[in-house]
Backbone:
């Protein structure tokens, strides 16, 4: 059984910073792409940032220059460093990973962590 467990959300003032973490555990052979998505109330879930197994990042235009995605392959963990936060960054943030666990690659999601940015 593979699980993704997120941590690091919370309430912060505009201009502040937060760091999200997402650790994968269970029967894992390898992890391909790891990503962060977010969903604000009344809006569709959107991709925030992604990182390949080789460490190549990609970002949504709305967070470029403010957010940094990274990963520690030895710990099966992905991070999202969020700086210069804005009220429009308020959302539930979800971790995603494509994981090989011996039965082929499957998509796994974390439970979500709330990020609230006050103005």
Residues:
């Amino acid at each position: 059984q593979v699980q993704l467990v997120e941590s690091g959300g919370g309430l912060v003032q505009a201009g502040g910073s937060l760091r999200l973490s997402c650790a994968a555990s269970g029967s894992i052979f390898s992890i391909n792409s790891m990503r962060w998505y977010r969903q604000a109330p009344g809006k569709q879930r959107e991709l925030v940032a992604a990182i390949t197994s080789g460490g190549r990042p990609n970002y949504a235009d709305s967070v470029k220059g403010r957010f940094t995605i990274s990963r520690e392959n030895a710990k099966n963990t992905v991070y999202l460093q969020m700086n210069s936060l804005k009220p429009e960054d308020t959302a539930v943030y979800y971790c995603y990973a494509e994981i090989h666990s011996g039965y082929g690659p499957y998509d796994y999601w974390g439970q979500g962590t709330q990020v609230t940015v006050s103005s």
User: Anything to note?
Assistant: Residues 38 and 82 are 13 Å apart (CA to CA). The longest strand covers residues 30-39.
